[in-house]
# Entry
Amino acid sequence: MHDEPAQGTLAVHAGEARQKAGDAIADAIFCTSTYTFENSQAILEFLDGKNPREEYGRYGNPNERVVERKLAALDGGEAALVFASGMAAIVTLLMAKLNAGDEIVFFDECYHRSREFCVKHLSRFGVTTRQVKTGNYEALASAITPATKMLVSESPTNPHLSVVDLERFVAVGRSAKVETLIDATLATPYNLRPLRAGVDYVLHSATKYLGGHNDLLAGVVVGSEEKLAPVRQLRGILGTITAPHVAYLLQRGLKTFALRMEQHNRNGLALAQFLAGHPKVTKVYYPGVPAHPYFHLAKETMRGFGGLLTFEIRGDAQTAMRVVDAVKIPRIGPSLGGVESLIEQPLLMSYWNYTPEQRAAIGIADTLIRVSAGIEDTDDLLADFRQALEHA
Ligand SMILES: *Cc1c(COP(=O)(O)O)cnc(C)c1O
# Structure
């Protein structure tokens, strides 16, 4: 692929004009809700499609268009649509694509709010949701009926970091003429390019690694222009768009995307390897360690394994709380993919309302700890976890 610039170059330059407003090197932020026409003739030309331009903020803004071109280039897609959040992206995409009577099939380790939207809300509009065990391609194929319109998975998944075999996933969809969607938020286009495997739509919560600085919410869907056209139309009605300031922040964050991902990958792998060899750690979920069930698939299909990892320690919920409270660099909080490392205990942060039986059924141990490795110095993070585990 020598004809195509690499991710580091695309992240800095793709989608941007060479010469910009005011001759500035940075894009101006278009702080406006509406765009004016010089005269009635200009409106007629716009309506005839002779003069593509902005009209009203709900339909698009120049900052969002720049970042959309950049994100399409990074994922190797024809077009990208940016949204107010990752969830706004999923909701708008599914509402544009599904009709009453349609069915959708999920791998069950997908982001819980995406599944909740389908199970609790799309059901009110007559859409049926089926869920099958992640990685079971026979069950996936069996769940398809003549009414099925889309297969959805995340790869890798959270918090168990299961990796989907995209070729098999796509083959199941294609043989039944059903479209496929991969939420690649944890992988990012740096580590995984699902469109190359033939996936129809790739989705990211840009809140995570793409924005990368824990300072914005955004989402993106990448795919073909034709397939995204109805999604763009619906976004213009719903108003699930990104504001110009946020789009600019996302563009700014993306400049260092490749550099950040290198360090996230390095820190994630170093921490996972350190934890895997620690006597107080009983299990590590990270596709870059050989004990992980998807190690070989991940090694074959991913460039790096990202900054998110989870692990279980010997002891009980209190032991895990002591370790979480003892780390000095990562802050305690949800989310992932930012330059600042984060740590949390899924039991408290996401699954407190579940019964112990429900947690056991989905593999959430009381001692599970989730780490989003930031871009701090690797040795400092390792030293921090070494001292924190002395409290276990
Ligand atoms: C965070 C996240 C989402 C939702 O994105 P928001 O930007 O928070 O709306 C969807 N999928 C995955 C895998 C996520 O991590």
